[in-house]
Protein: Protein cos5
Amino acid sequence: MKENELKNEKSVDVLSFKQLESQKIVLPQDLFRSSFTWFCYEIYKSLAFRIWMLLWLPLSVWWKLSNNCIYPLIVSLLVLFLGPIFVLVICGLSRKRSLSKQLIQFCKEITENTPSSDPHDWEVVAANLNSYLYENNVWNTKYFFFNAMVCQEAFRTTLLEPFSLKKDKAAKVKSFKDSVPYIEEALGVYFTEVEKQWKLFNTEKSWSPVGLEDAKLPKEAHWSKFTWLLGRIFTIYFLPLCLAFFNCIYTSRNDDLISDFLCTVVIFLFMVWLFRNVRMIVLSVKMEHKMQFLSTIINEQESGANGWDEIAKKMNRYLFEKKVWNNEEFFFDGIDCEWFFSHFFYRLLSAKKSMWLLPLNVELWPYIKKAQLSRGDEASVTNESF
Structure:
């Protein structure tokens, strides 16, 4: 009897997957031209925007009644330039607060629809929550989540990472209160689906390289790592920084050579740092790419430097075939590949904190540990990469 009551309680207000199978799942990405137009619509419908607009009414009256226009002008400029910042901050906090009050409903949807790490699996969850939040007057539009990827990222930042990083039960109860049982069940469902997806990659059934014998690492095609690095950063994607870099070189002919030289060096080093992080952002777009990387490390038979060279070759081919990178030069060599794994995967696991817009990959922690142990040399990092 109690089990039936608990089951009925968990299914309250949850739109089943079968109910949505008969109708096409419609998300804001299907209705708006872009995420920018959706964002503008959400701002326009917010209470903070309306308050900002109403502020102009007393200001206009003040302009007419005031004999000195300096003070109304100063206040008007402050409202004009600081108002949008105020609106953006309030809207962001409002979204976060609204979602934090619906953690139980969020968990119910996850438990009911069993999404995995694939963003497409989150479409039903996003559509259901959009309807639920609007119908229950939690949010003032039907478009809380723009697409499935935004919903998945909200799950990651609101539930997955904060809950996983809590050290003890008391801290979890204090932070999430009555939501703890539902969160534990939702995370259990999610990790089960992630494990299913991982098994496909770990058995190498998802992808296997063809003609890898003829593949060459960039270290064999370039004079040095420096020339390879120059070719990677001086591209159209870094055009603004490239122009600033060449401008500094051009102005170095002036009298103040020391400051111009230092500025040139700083811009170049920033471009190198940005390139390193851009590679991780590109690899993090889809969970399958990160899983393939870890699976390739675990299943590599050779050890030492030769093993990392083979991993680099396989991943260069994989990322090129999947159109993640525009050539087969993602990794320069095995040392670069080993550094990349240790810096962006194993180090994040050890530090347990995100790095500059990079996800923490909580669901990948067991596989990161396994990949680190499978190398035998415990992924000894060589900081000479870059």
Observations:
- Residues 70-100 form the longest helix (31 residues).
- DSSP finds 20 helices and no strands in the chain.
- The chain has two domains: 10-201, 212-374.
- Confidence is low (pLDDT under 50) at residues 1-22, 378-386.
